[in-house]
Specification:
35 strands; single chain; 3% helix; 1 helix; Methylamine Dehydrogenase, Chain H; disordered N terminus; 41% strand; mainly beta
Length: 405
């Protein structure tokens, strides 16, 4: 195992620590406050491009949080220039779970403890399943099975067509992390300070790693390696096969987001008001981004384009950052925090905000190209497949956007 502790320690760590512990336990503790009307705060960087950096297959499904095993937040499909709400489904409580889409069905959980399978065409309920407690975990759908965790610490595997239980695995605390899947293995984190790898077929434990804090984000899996960041301030690189620790990189910050990986670099925001780029091959820091004046945590997970990284902040802004230099290209300011994780679709970036608005910004300039007001705060992230976008709100509504016919 290679252990590195040479990354710079954030100056704000000592005074901010007590607040971060609370947020890593709850992750909804900073209240949104109204502010100025949305505006672009910086000019686009000349020469910036927005073609997707990672290579992704033709997208007829969105099977897991962030869309692929590297958690890049890139959709290979397309969306209409102007989107309209095609249907709205109502659950009995808030939705923080980001939907998965497969075989014409949208899957997601709610704080009402139910997990829903919704027809993508008309928004009709296919089936629902009651878990042990609230569901914040984003589901993963693979080979006709849907997987997700709940606040009671149970990780569920259900038949995607019928909702029938295939197996349930119990951890020691709540599960907010989504599961990643590669080669018949599921990897996810738990608030019992552990990272788990299960056999997808029967739910048996393959390996378990104890960490020093909550594991909130979904782990990435790239080239047979699991990359996970958590509330203990470490970025861990673990061998998928047997759980062997390959590297621990101390980042001196609590992390609630999931890492986005491309070309051996992990990108993620922290509760120390920074966005980091770290090599998961050498363990070396590439850059740290901080807004010059607004110092707020990041809970949103990053999306990666060819030259840019996009991430939302609790500073009420979406940040577009140059991948090479770590410098701001543009920022777009909303009226409340952005916990929703952006998704890149062609030359646009889609995300939700705590204002209740869903935005599509031009990825090069940061200018608004489409906007919709739901009327309720949004924590969940967009899911894109089959020319449609699905996103839930904190008043329990699920919106499906597409081309009105």
């Amino acid at each position: 195992m290679k252990r590195r502790t040479d990354l710079p320690r954030p100056l704000a760590l000592a005074p901010f620590g007590s607040l971060i512990v609370m947020v890593c336990g709850v992750l909804t503790g900073l209240a949104a406050s109204p502010g100025a009307s949305p505006q672009t705060l910086a000019e686009p960087h000349e020469g910036a491009t927005v073609q997707a950096g990672p290579v992704v297959a033709e997208q007829t499904a969105w099977r897991l949080f962030r869309g692929d095993a590297g958690l890049t937040g890139v959709a290979a499909g397309s969306l209409p220039t102007s989107l309209a709400p095609l249907w709205v489904f109502e659950a009995d409580d808030s939705i923080e779970s980001t939907a998965s889409i497969a075989d014409g069905v949208a899957y997601l959980g709610s704080l009402d403890s139910y997990f829903y399978a919704i027809d993508l065409t008309d928004g009709e309920l296919r089936w629902k399943y009651q878990a042990s407690m609230e569901i914040r975990s984003s589901p993963t759908v693979v080979d006709g099975v849907v997987y997700f965790g709940d606040e009671g610490g149970q990780f569920h595997a259900l038949d995607a067509r019928s909702g029938e239980v295939k197996w349930v695995f119990s951890t020691g605390a709540g599960i907010i992390s989504g599961a990643n899947y590669v080669d018949g293995r599921l990897v996810f984190g738990s608030y019992d300070n552990s990272l788990y790898c299960l056999d997808a077929a029967d739910g048996s434990l393959i390996w378990k790693i104890e960490t020093l804090g909550y594991v909130n984000g979904t782990p990435a899996i790239v080239d047979g390696k699991v990359i996970s960041v958590g509330c203990d301030g470490f970025c861990r690189v673990v061998r998928l096969e047997d759980g062997a620790s390959l590297m621990e990189i101390e980042v001196y910050a609590y992390v609630g987001a999931s890492p986005a990986i491309d070309n051996g670099i992990a990108y993620f925001g922290t509760f120390e008001n920074q966005v980091m780029a770290i090599s998961v091959i050498t363990g070396e820091l590439q850059w740290i981004y901080e807004h010059p004046t607004r110092k707020f945590p990041y809970y949103s997970s990053a999306a990666i384009a060819a030259d840019l990284v996009f991430v939302g902040g609790r500073d009420k802004m979406l940040h577009a950052i140059d991948r090479k230099s770590g410098e701001a290209v543009w920022t777009y300011r909303t009226r409340a925090r952005i916990d929703s994780s952006p998704v890149i679709v062609g030359d646009r970036v889609f995300f939700g905000a705590s204002t209740g608005e869903v935005f599509a910004l031009n990825a090069s300039s940061g200018e608004v190209e489409w906007q919709f007001e739901t009327g309720s705060s949004i924590v969940a992230s967009p899911s894109i497949a089959d020319g449609r976008m699905v996103i839930g709100t904190e008043d329990g509504q699920v919106y499906c956007f597409g081309e009105m016919r």
